[in-house]
Give the backbone structure.
Amino acid sequence: MNIIIPVAGEGTRLRPHTQTKPKPILKVAGKAIIGYILDSIRSLRPEKIILVLGHQGEKIKQFVLKNYPDMTFDFVYQKERRGLGDAIFKSIYILDENDAVLILLGDTIFNVNYKKIIDKHKNFVGVKETNEPERFGIVEIKDRKIVNVIEKPKKPPNNLAIVGLYYFERVKYLKEALKYIIDNNIRTRGEYQLTDGLMRMIKNGIDLYPFPISDWFDCGKKGNLLETQRYLLKKYGKKKSIDGSIIIPPTYIEDDASIENSIIGPYVSVGNKVHIKNSIVRDSILYDGSSLENLLIESSIIGENSVVNGYFRKVDIGDFSKIETK
């Protein structure tokens, strides 16, 4: 089993947090986004995990080599952002044409049994109904097969979105399709899209099947990131008590965090060496080394080593920032 994880995007919708670190290593409920992905595929014992790197790619490379020394990685660089189709095309040259490949987007967390996909020996595209179909690739289905794929349509024909999970029994046909769209400069929204490659496969008579995904969490923007954290904390959060403060589960709080005379939770993750005093924090992410005093915050993300003192506020600031209100 071979796995491709594209992580070359800039994460513009999560700025300012992605100005200092790439989106896949942002933590949610105490763990990096890509950490959830790698942990979920460990049982598959993949022969190769190919990471497609781009913006701040060296930070991702260092992270996975340090934290996942038992896994084998290959690194492919997409120096110029030319779309997901281009990123996948660059990576599949490492594989043999008859290899099977699982593709997982690096900013998406799934709760799925991959064996149910692999054991059926078919080509699958993960799908789920969404309230924002214009943000995603949309599939149309007939006789249980995918017959049409549309990249982020202005007027979606339905709300069945591609969720960033793909499985191909033989990589040969995907390679041929992507080569065709690149050689013929077929672009959508100015980029080489994987969805156009999928359509080329369909036109060539290759069957693609939808695979419904019930638990899919897109971490592409702030609201989604916090929504994902709520789900993960419900599932993995641990009970914790701190003298002089009230902890309302579910939460994730690092052991070396300092919390005084505060109310924390629900749905809060607190990183290493975070200091909180005289504050109320709910539905928020506090990254390592941040400090809060005399605040009420919710639906907020506080970057590493940031200091926020003063009145109750709703804030969203990047790493190494400092805010004082008097």
